[in-house]
Amino acid sequence: MKKRKVDNLLALAVLSVIVERPMHRYEIAQTLRDRGKDHDMAIKWGSLYTVVQNMAKVGFLEVVGSERAGARPERVIYRITDEGRAEMADWTRELLSTPEPEPHRFVAGLSILAVLPPAEVVELLATRLEALDRTIETVRRELGELAGALPRLFIVESEFGLAMLEAEAAWTRSLRAELTEGTFPGLAQWREWHERGALPAEVAEMVERGMAED
What we know:
Strand content: 5-15%
Distance between the termini: 20 Å
Structural class: mainly alpha
Number of strands: 3
Shape: elongated
Order of helices and strands: HEHHHEEHHHHHH
């Protein structure tokens, strides 16, 4: 991945809204919240001031004025520069074209699955599936509402999120079925390990390796 002058994804989110018109930081934050960008990106709102300042320093934004309302502090108004537009387009191209491994808490749990007995894993996966199904139902409903109010161009990220949830649910349901039906390879040995009260040294080593990698 290319090294960015400002590599916080919040910077890209800011560019994506300020490209419409000059804004002050409070308006930027409100627009991002209104559009649910905090659901699409790991936004830390406390970083907004620093991110905007850094983008101005590297030439992606420039100050075009200020305003004051009543007793409120003066608000600096920024607009995007040509360099900022180029950065926004280049960064978006990279995100769309280049796959990048992303950490996932579920993957971390799967990597050390052996530390729990199979019967407990079956129950935990059932709990996860209930939560996933509720979330999928909610997202489907929200997507249906958005589809009637916004062009598809502006909700494709929600479609992708739904597809990922559905894929995770399908895979989790399949794994649970293997465990409950007894078709999971090595299931009897896995049960035996926990009945004896200890994992074999080689299995414990693999679990430790999985934890280290995650």
